[in-house]
Amino acid sequence: MATTPSDRLLVIDDEPDLRTLYEMTLLREGYNLVSAGTVSEALALLEQERFTAVISDMRLPDGSGLDVLAWLERAQRPERVVVITAHGSAENAVEALKAGAFDYLTKPVDLRQFRSVVASATGRDAQRSRREAAASAPLVRSEALGRLAGESEVMHQVRALIDKVSRSMAPVLLQGESGTGKELVARAIHGQGPRAGLPFVAVNCGAIPEHLLEAEFFGYRKGAFTGAAEDREGFFQAAQGGTLFLDEIGDLPLAMQSKLLRAIQERAVRPVGAVAETPVNLRLVSATHKDLAAEVTAGRFRQDLFYRLNVIQIRVPPLRERLQDLDDIAQALLQRIAADAGVVPAPSLSASALQRLRAYPFPGNVRELENVLHRALALSGGQLLEAEDLDLPDAQGLALPVEREAEPVTAPTPLAEGPLPDDLAAYLDRVERVVLERALAAHRYNRTAAGASLGLSLRQMRYRMARLGIGGPEGDGGA
Ligand SMILES: Nc1ncnc2c1ncn2[C@@H]1O[C@H](COP(=O)(O)OP(=O)(O)OP(=O)(O)O)[C@@H](O)[C@H]1O
Questions:
Q1: Ligand 1 centre from 317 Cα, in Å?
Q2: Which of 105, 360, 380, 479 is a plausible cystine mate for 389, CB 3.0–4.6 Å?
């Protein structure tokens, strides 16, 4: 590959053999480099010139890789730093990421991984993929960040954090109620980062049946189980080079938590039925509406996995805590919904409509607001949406949700009597298909509303529709 003048690296390691190994590997890749054996030598070189990236061992005779990181932070230098930590030292890796390292590698260094991590630190992988995918990949860069409306103090903080974390590969944990915009934040982190042109794969951990998790995450080989007619890649392979967004991570069963932890530690996954592992290099963003620290205390979430995922935490507050954003968000959503529906110009909200919105607590947060506006737009037809068009209960009339008695479940008639199905999975798929299709038709193909009527989130609905190959008119903005 052609070298650009910016491909200049600084390698810091005190062991001559390792330094030679790194140098040889990098020279063969076409990089141009200098090396140092101590922190002070490294700082002297850094004072003289700028590098694209710095690759530093953690333990050095006169200090540590963290000292180099701290120096670069203080000097506000743009170099990306990859630290190399001792095997099994999760603390060091997490500490380095928190201190601003771009990424880390663990000893003994796997050279394939080394090349791939350095390629992302120098931006080569992103450049290559942008060239390859220029026309076909949707350019997510900045688009998601642009969609994130709201000028409240807390939203400014969220945006500042997105900007900061997007510069490294550090895992991010997003904490917030359902519908607050966690996925949008995850997309913004990806879109602002150096790998914006690479895939962003969103997975709702809670929507996948437990027995399919491993195959869905890591893929499988042909013949691994009945029905595995060909090799299939998992989410990790699909997100290779980019970002894997694990939503509702708190719903992951313990057994799968262990497998996920292993994949993070080893930076490799083994598809079901495969002998060899496949290296993966991606950024993990996870999200939860649960208090994961409390889940750890309760023994439902692995402490070590929590530690690995929670390197940087961003809290996305509920809408009721940032009511001053409501007007901006409502207007932004209305613009988008109207544009998607081909309604030009977009209608606006009357003063009374805005007042009604402000008085409503929005337990379903921004997603609920989006649905309310969808419905209002479909029903009103005018240029000004009034309070009545929103179809919201008065603030005074709002009652707390009453727990409904669970309705008795009656088995579908064919099962109460008559022959039992000879293929239960296929039979249940047929039942599910009929239920989903009926709910979709009843809600004019609005997947959010159809899902809600069945007690499913939009993601669960999407997952089920995709699994059963149910298409149909795009009925809402949840895609
Ligand atoms: N600040 C915002 N400005 C504009 N639109 C927003 C904002 N926050 C969220 N949205 C929109 O609200 C909807 C719900 O957001 P999103 O799916 O990101 O929430 P979530 O927290 O991931 O929800 P869940 O936990 O249920 O998966 C999306 O259509 C998103 O684009």
A1: 11
A2: 380
